[in-house]
Amino acid sequence: MKSKTNFKLLIALTSTIALVACNGGGGGGGGGDTPPGPGPSPTPPAPGTLQALQFQSVGTPLNLNKVGGSGVWYMLAKNPNSNTVNVFSRDNNTYEIFLERGIFSYNTGIIHPMQFVETYSGEVSGYSSTPDCLSLVNRGELVLGANQSCIYKFKAFWNSNLNMPNTTQFQIDYQFYAPSISTTQLYCTSDIATGCNKTIGYDSNNTLSYQSYTVKSQDNIESQLGFSNFNFSFTGNKVLNWVQQNGNPNLTQTINTYNVNYNSSANQLSLSGQQVFNGFNTSHGTYNFNYNISGFISSDGSNFGSNSWNNMTFLGANVMEAISGTNGTVYVTNLNLNVYKSATGDFINSQNYSQVVNPWSVASYGLIGVDETTNVALLYKPSTGQNFCFNINNGTYTQLSVLTGGQYGFQLFMGLNNTLPVINGGLYLSTGHIYGKGQNGQNYWAKTANYSTMRKINTTNCSVGNTDQLYSFVDISANTTGGYSGIATNSDLNQYLVSNANFN
């Protein structure tokens, strides 16, 4: 009789699992032929009989519709078993319970769509009563009762310039156990095989998909322009290119300026009207234009310069700062610590520029941005490494708040000469690292998305906002009224041409 029972079990289960049962592996005797008794609960199944968890994207789908963007999406996680299961994090450095496959062999082609979570409050239609997965976390483990489901609200970030199909799938890795069966009998996906007793294969239950957006290689700005050293005017109608002297990369030999034409349907740039400027090493001493953080070119092409040289004779040989305000006005500071502004960037004709009343001391503060809508100047204080908003109307200083008190905070990462990019009429701050909430509820600094991030500054209350429109841009070469901008991501240092519609 016993052999027949074992034979039935062998048929019902896989051969490997049956052998475990024949050898008496944990949990009480197979019990398939024994009718249920009057006890409070049925005898739990033998190890190896647990089913894999099930996942489903609900509500707003994950859509990577912006290069270097972010988005909220929702994932339903279900335990189809009649046993409570505990799902636990593999790595305490990430605090992720469910992982994108391959995250531990990190590369920039991985999106990390499940790295950070926000509180779910029943906002998905049809799932208003489904609990937040965060509410089911106990001692760092997600505890799902028998046949229980929960929802994770994810805040996904991505920075890579990826060449992906319109619909991309990713597989979910995880590991779990059933305390009522065994605390040592582990179940996991094939990517988490160390110490795993039973491997769960990949199928539709742990595979999700998202819509992807691709910046194509022909959108590379360097390829379209035919050179790599360049600065666009704020309006995007002019571009400046500099050529370093042969054998001396620290000496600029020639500067070329061009008119820029943009074809929005083809996302293509073309140039015309070249002007050539020489003699920088003779007229102005040894000059290097290769440091271009504060470089600029005026909308009409009459003026150009950077931190160490300009063709604005009234300012002398040096411009300490050269920035664009949010409405496109160019602000420059000379060695005498005077600030001048020009709507077009033309500082040759006196009727086109004026001196700015400068109530702050640029000897103590560096000017890094101007919000012309709120009339607030963004300043950097090198002695303390702090940033301040200066209200030009009333003369008050407010220290910039980087950690806003929400679920996401951002560590300041900027220097004296890091002028603030202007994007669609707003000032953006470069910050380092991402601080968020992991799937087990733990707040932490990201280890697998340790990039610079672009955050919009609210100059009214002098804080960095938590709403994300841009992420992981190393540089923005232009924010133009001509309908395009140039960006570079951490994963790809090339400059890419992107329609301004992608920044809305």
Word description of this protein:
The protein is mainly beta. It has 3 domains: 1-31, no CATH class; 50-212, Immunoglobulin-like, CATH 2.60.40; 218-503, 7 Propeller (Methylamine Dehydrogenase, Chain H). 6% of the residues lie in helices and 38% in strands. It has a 6-stranded mixed beta sheet with strand order 7-8-4-11-12-13, with no helix packed on it. Strands 29, 30, 31, 32, 33 and 34 form a 6-stranded antiparallel beta sheet that branches. Strand 19 (296-297) and strand 20 (304-305) form a beta hairpin. Helix 1 packs antiparallel against helix 2 (15-22). It is elongated and about 85 Å long. 39% of the residues are buried. Mean pLDDT is 75; it is low at 1-48, 404-411 and 413-417.
The strands making up the biggest β-sheet line up spatially as 7-8-4-11-12-13
* Structure class: mainly beta
The radius of gyration over CA amounts to 30 Å
Alpha-carbon distance between the two ends: 72 Å
Number of helices: 4
Which shape, going by the Cα principal axes?
Answer: elongated
Note the beta-strand portion. Answer: 35-45%
Q: How many strand elements? A: 37
How many domains? The number is 3
CATH class of the largest domain: Mainly Beta
Helix content: under 10%
pLDDT below 50 for ≥5 consecutive residues: which ranges?
1-48, 404-411, 413-417
